[in-house]
TrEMBL record:
Protein name: Ribosomal RNA small subunit methyltransferase G
Domain of life: Bacteria
Location in or out of the cell: Cytoplasm
Keyword rRNA processing: yes
Gene: rsmG
Organism: Aromatoleum petrolei
Keyword rRNA processing: yes
EC number(s) recorded for this UniProt protein: 2.1.1.170
Major subcellular location class: cytoplasm
Alphabetical UniProt keywords: Cytoplasm, Methyltransferase, rRNA processing, S-adenosyl-L-methionine, Transferase
InterPro entries noted in UniProt: rRNA_ssu_MeTfrase_G (IPR003682), SAM-dependent_MTases_sf (IPR029063)
SUPFAM superfamilies (UniProt xref): S-adenosyl-L-methionine-dependent methyltransferases (SSF53335)
Length: 211
């Protein structure tokens, strides 16, 4: 049932991923459920909901990552969206390098175990507060999924980006109030409505640049 839900959802989103990628995504979903029993990584526990609320909800932004070579995922908890995106892009030449920055030790430990078990060469975990991270090479983009409000997100992560880099904020309903509170030197490049099959909730990708 989970495999069918994943395949059907990806098809509805227009994403054509090979069978080995689908298998690895389902392996990650099973790993997340297994660890969740002990580590409480997510409040979502049912297999079907893990597919819709985590895998599909992460992969819906995949078409908007074109041209991004280095991506930082901020406060990803159980590795979302970073790990599904790393799985889906691992076969690209070159594959984007995705770094998860996670403060909570048990969540970073799970992500490290997932990296090992799923052989994710294009995925790295940093167990660190984002404001303390000083990357040797800046990122092309930073992404977050319900990490914080927009003003906090851009304020906490702008030191990670190269000049002209982008902030990718995954949001639910269109965040009018959060956009109004953005500092004056940041601008909205695009606000993309997203549809996640089986979710039954609004989703938006808010793309921000520093002016």
């Amino acid at each position: 049932m989970s495999a069918m839900t994943l395949e059907r959802g990806l098809a509805e989103m227009g994403l054509n991923l090979p069978a080995d990628v689908l298998a690895k995504l389902l392996e990650f979903a099973a790993l997340l459920q297994k660890w969740n029993k002990v580590y409480n990584l997510t409040s979502i526990r049912g297999a079907g909901q893990v597919i819709t609320h985590h895998l599909l909800d992460s992969l819906v932004v995949l078409p908007h990552l074109a041209g991004i070579g280095r991506l930082a995922d901020i406060g990803s908890g159980g590795g979302l969206p970073g790990i599904p995106l790393a799985i889906a892009t691992a076969a690209r030449q070159p594959a984007p390098a995705i770094t998860s920055i996670e403060t909570v030790n048990k969540k970073a430990s799970f992500q490290q175990q997932a990296k090992i078990e799923l052989s994710l060469a294009n995925f790295t975990v940093l167990n660190e507060r984002v404001e303390n991270v000083r990357p040797g090479q800046p990122f092309d983009a930073v992404i977050s999924r319900a990490f914080s409000e927009l003003a906090d997100f851009v304020g906490l992560t702008q030191h990670l980006l190269r000049p002209g880099g982008r902030f990718l904020a995954m949001k639910g309903v269109y965040p009018h109030d959060e956009i109004a509170r953005l500092p004056a030197d940041f601008r909205i490049v695009e606000a993309v409505p997203l549809t996640v099959p089986g979710l039954g909730a609004e989703r938006h990708l808010i793309i921000v640049e520093k002016s």
